[in-house]
Amino acid sequence: MAPEVNSSKSESSTKPGLHPVFTVTNIQHKVRVLDGTKVTYASWVRLFKLHACGYKVLSHIDGTPAPPETAASYESRHEVDAHVLQWIYGTLSDELLPRVLEDESTARQAWVRVENIFNNNKGARAAALEFEFNSLRLANMPSLEAYCQRLRELAGMLKDVDAPVTDRRLVIQLVRGLPREYDTVASYINQTTPNFETARSMLELELHRQSSSDESPLAPAAPVAAVAESWVDPPL
Structure pTM? Predict the structure, then answer.
């Protein structure tokens, strides 16, 4: 007598599996919202492509031709494409979404529209960003943290318009925009040429030192250079 076959098990083994794209319930938990400032276009593209590759939908945005409407795979691909389109729309800021949203669109067409927004008029945008980058001063910002963050943002935006900023130039501009009370640590940064994050940490340490001195005017202040050396050449 032939063994009884479990019909439900047989059906599940032959039934095609759910496409990975449908397991994503909230794309914003994986790809941050593109606003062109805090999240630059280049960063958004890298994150989006990373997840598109992981969830097997990269072909929907990289220009791979879609199958014809008569193909057996057309309907399933169309459903997946609609989901990828939702990913794109769901990771755009309120200002960008109206410029990209259309009634009839494929994911690839929406992807190209976003690309065009950031690739058009690169020269004029680069000039405006360069002016702001070179003019930025700590005195015009609410805090040291905001000043450093804005420099980072501008550097990212300049990279998007093919005008990348080297880490060394970022440090030079960081120092250039400091007020006179940072002269000592600024001079030390110029001499030791640390990377941006180390220079930023040195400035934060100096800000803390100044705040402590203001609260306790009689307390001796540690030499800036001696403290800063611990950031540049940490003991082995």
Answer: 0.67
